[in-house]
Design brief:
heterodimer; A: 376 residues; alpha/beta; 2 domains; five-stranded mixed beta sheet; elongated; B: 254 residues; Rossmann fold; 40% helix
Chain lengths: 376, 254
């Protein structure tokens, strides 16, 4: 009976992994420790948007109570009152409201501050509320003089240009957490480079090619072990990240899990999707890159470009959904913002943050095999 | 018996014509030495013989059967060893034997008996549970040799097998090659050491600038060139065939 070469190679490759303690540690323990530690550090600066406050101002001769009855159920974060544009401007400027809608003759003005994450999120709902209001107001007594006109909605951004720069930092910061997750998955790339081009470099590939076994089966066995190792590493990293969020940021964790099955469900689905997509993409590209590359360096280089392209293709869709804010590592930007505002004050937590980032970087280098190469 | 007919290999990437026209005949039960200066095309020829490279043109026959790409049947009958070939450093000789034995479809009992025989012969029995990457160069070479011979191949292709080894290890390997010859195996050696050729080889093939310029017995080589020793014959053949190119070059320029 013929041996199952795929299984034979899998057993052997797994044995090889077990016999490489550096790889085991960097693959399993370091992601767990570094991600857990990182999320602890960042829990000091994390802000999660679960609720915000908006206010709708109606003219003095209009019944705000009636509108409240109509809309408060759909828009629980908004309050309804009579007031002027000046009052609304002051309220948003003072930070007492994340956004405000001001109903005027034929116009609904939305006041918000794009540099504030909560305000940006409130704007989405404010726009929906503005449209609902325009439907409700149509035909009302207030609009009887202009029956055939919908009120116009005007957005007013109250942030300064400096604030807007800080707002961009917020958004970029949201992406960084996801990139860290993707970096963990991109271990697939480095390990794959190790599998085939590494064999070529170590001159162990010829002995394998000479065997009367189907080379595709040998490669499949090697790639399967590599994928399993990466998946394991990714799962451990994810558990550490979620655990870190639950331990160090319980308020945010509760907000995610209690905000209804929809949000909580999305959180886990998105995490899994990112990992699945990153694994598949990196594995495919890595195998292609690795098969044609003569050295690990060229293999990494060729896979790296392709993985970066795929990351840039994936990320915008997640940013649009605003889901990035649910990642415990995502909002690291207050540090950067405080430096921009010249308000940075040192606390030991920043040393801890630097150490954890260093640890994370080190794990990437060790698991990529670069260390092995330089120490040879 | 192996027959090589007008073998040619051009590396498209760097447009190097490594082998231009090589025709040789290698018989069972003999040690065949492949000689040539550095860059003559010996290693490329051996890599084509061992199925690691596909020829650009020309044919290779094993017992009358033409060698095809990925020919598993022929691969199971040959082995190829160079001093460049390495094995996975994390494994011990024992584990390496199990791994490669499995890929060669060997039953476990056969793997174990071959392991014992080869490890004993090459003096690696007491290190059989030590990692390969902790071995010295000589020990690595002996382990590689044992693993390459594990499946008891009919054809053994060695590219400079004793290069960089101490005299004791060299003698051990030479003695084993003679033992394999007695068993009727076909052994192809590529070497620069003409003493080794004189001592061990039955027949010799000489390649100069990618072309085979001689194929015959070691005994008839000096006589065929009108000289007394193998060294002189080799140098004469090299000069004649290499200079021919230089003369053509001069004529062309002139």
């Amino acid at each position: 009976m013929r041996r199952n070469h795929v299984l034979h190679v899998i057993k052997s490759e797994w044995k090889k992994t077990r016999k490489t303690p550096v790889q085991l540690v960097t693959m399993l323990l370091v992601p767990m420790i570094s991600v857990l530690f990182l999320s602890w550090c960042l829990s000091y600066v994390v802000t999660l948007v679960d609720r915000y406050s908006g206010t709708v101002y109606f003219p003095e001769d209009f019944s705000a109570e009636e509108m409240k009855e109509e809309l408060s159920e759909s828009y629980p974060d908004f309050s309804f009152r009579n007031g002027t544009l000046e009052e609304a401007t002051t309220r948003v400027s003072n930070g007492k409201a994340d956004c405000a809608l001001v109903v005027e003759d034929k116009t609904i003005r939305i006041l918000y501050d794009s540099s504030i994450l909560t305000s940006s999120q409130a704007l989405k709902d404010a726009k929906d509320l503005g449209i609902d209001l325009s439907y409700l107001l149509e035909g009302e007594k207030y609009y009887s003089d202009a029956y055939d006109l919908y009120p116009e909605i005007e957005n007013i951004d109250m942030s300064s240009s400096a604030d807007r720069v800080i707002g961009y930092i917020d958004r970029v910061g949201g992406v960084v957490g996801m990139i860290i997750f993707l970096m963990m998955a991109s271990n697939a790339m480095t390990l794959s480079a190790r599998t085939i081009t590494g064999e070529k470099e170590r001159q162990t590939f010829d002995t394998l090619v000479l065997c009367p076994a189907d080379l595709s089966k040998i490669l499949l066995g090697k790639e399967l072990v590599m994928l399993a190792e990466i998946f394991l590493s990714g799962i451990i990293g994810s558990i550490a990240a979620i655990g870190g969020m639950a331990i160090w940021s319980p308020k945010e964790f509760d907000a995610v899990t209690e905000n209804g099955a929809e949000v909580a469900g999305w959180f886990f689905v998105i995490v899994l999707l990112i990992f699945a997509a990153a694994l598949v993409i990196t594995a495919i590209f890595s195998v292609i890159g690795s098969a044609f590359a003569q050295t690990k360096k060229t293999s990494l280089f060729s896979s790296c470009g392709m993985v970066l392209v795929s990351i840039s293709a994936i990320l915008p869709s997640f940013i649009d959904t605003g889901i990035v804010k649910y990642f415990p590592l995502s909002d690291w930007t207050p540090i950067l913002k405080s430096i921009c505002k010249d308000e940075f004050t040192y606390t030991p937590i920043f040393t801890a943050l630097a150490i954890s980032l260093l640890l994370f970087g080190l794990s990437m280098i060790l698991s990529s095999g670069l260390w092995e190469r330089t120490s040879e | 018996m192996i027959t090589i007919e007008h073998l040619k290999k051009t590396f498209k990437k760097n447009k190097v014509e490594a082998v231009k026209d090589v025709s040789l005949e290698i018989r069972d039960g003999e040690i065949f030495a492949l000689l040539g200066p550095n860059g003559a095309g010996k290693t490329t020829t051996m890599r084509m013989l061992s199925t690691l490279l596909l020829p650009t043109s020309g044919k290779i026959f094993f017992d009358g059967k033409e060698l095809k790409p990925n020919d598993e049947q022929i691969r199971s009958r040959i082995t190829f060893l160079t001093n460049e070939i390495r094995l996975d450093g994390q494994f011990t000789p024992d584990e390496l034997a199990d791994y490669y034995g499995g890929l060669y479809e060997m039953p476990n009992e056969k793997i174990n008996s071959r392991k014992d025989e080869l490890f004993d012969y090459f003096g690696i029995s007491e290190f059989r549970n030590r990692r390969y990457d902790t071995f010295s160069t000589g020990m690595k070479q002996k382990t590689s040799l044992a693993i390459c011979l594990l499946h008891d191949p009919d054809t053994i292709i060695f590219d400079e097998p004793t290069n960089g080894l101490d005299i004791l290890t060299q003698q051990l390997i030479e003695a084993y090659l003679l033992k394999l010859k007695e068993q009727g195996k076909c052994i192809i050696l590529s070497t620069h050491i003409l003493d080794l050729v004189a001592r061990m080889a039955d027949r010799v093939g000489i390649i100069v600038d990618g072309k085979s310029v001689f194929c015959g017995t070691v005994a008839e080589l000096p006589g065929s060139q009108g000289v007394e020793t193998i060294d002189q014959a080799f140098i004469k053949l090299y000069k004649e065939n290499h200079e021919e190119k230089a003369i053509v070059g001069r004529h062309g320029n002139g």
